[in-house]
Each structure stands twice: as structure tokens, then as C-alpha cells.
Predict the structure.
Amino acid sequence: MTTSQTAVGALPYMAPEVIDTPREVESPADVWSVGAMMFHLICGEPPYGSGLRAVSKILAAEEPVAPPFLRSNPQFAPLAVEVLELALRCLKRDPALRPTADDLVKRCGQFCYTPGVRYEGVVKAIRHSAWGFIASDEGDVFFHLSSVYGPRKVSVGDHVLFASYDGGGAPRAHPVIALTAAS
């Protein structure tokens, strides 16, 4: 709250107590916001939607439904489920049930994920609906369609973000994430 009694923040990331009792907000509200951002990053949408419609859903604090793609690819499911479970713990209605900021940092540090450098490229070719190449400043990089994270597959000409690793004959990309065009 500002001195003019105006709430500041983005609704999709406001903890229930920020809406209910804005003068009594403490650090667990920030943990809730981090959980909402984590959910948004791995699922592609805020946990309770956006705009004014989100308010009643945030206050009801029903567990948001994650999209099926999180669990459908065995290469990504273990990490995606771990991140989702942590995000959902952060989104508990009762601030006392949320992890502390220190717990949150510790848990994130325990995740197994690739620390590789990320590159941008363009899908150059797809063969046999199974694999292809990404053109990048680093040269052509092999990828398999099962390495694409998210709700949609990529097509030739799509811009992607990827990590590159040594492979037989050509570097290999994993994971591959489709980038959306800037509006």
C-alpha cells in the first residue's frame, strides 16, 4: 500500500493476504508471489489467471491445475513435478504453511537442472517428424523433438532457446524451448 492507500503490484502475483488485509502483510506474501511466478514460468500461465477474475480464485486458494504437458514428457517430468510441488507449497492460503524464503532457496538449489549456457536459434529442418537441426551463431545443432519443452512442438522457422552439448557428429540441443514473438 502506498501513502495514498493504493495497492501496488500485479494481481496474478498478489498473495491472498495482500488482498484481504494489506496492512498486515509480511514476508510470506513474497514467498507466495515467487510461487505464483514459478507456476507461471513452468506452466505458461499464472496459477489463478489474470485481471480482476483472478481475485476470487486467489482468495479461494484452490490448488491450480497444471497443464498435462508437465508430466507427459519423461525427460522433463521429474524436474517439472518438483518445481510444481514447490510452487504449490508457496501458494498455500495460510502463510504459516508456506516455506520460508531460506527454505525456498535451499530447495531450489537441490533441483537437478542443466546449468549450460543458453543459445537462441531458428529451427532449420525437421526430419521424419522426430529430429532436426537448429541454426544458430554457433553453427547447426542437432535436436530431437522429445527435447522440446512446453505445450507445443516446434516447426521449421520457429525461434528457440536451447542449451548445447557435445554429441556424435554435431552438438546436441537439450532442452529446447520455443520462443514466442514479441508483440
The CA atoms of residues 7 and 128 lie 53 Å apart. The chain has two domains: 11-110, 118-178. The chain has a mean pLDDT of 88. DSSP finds six helices and six strands in the chain.
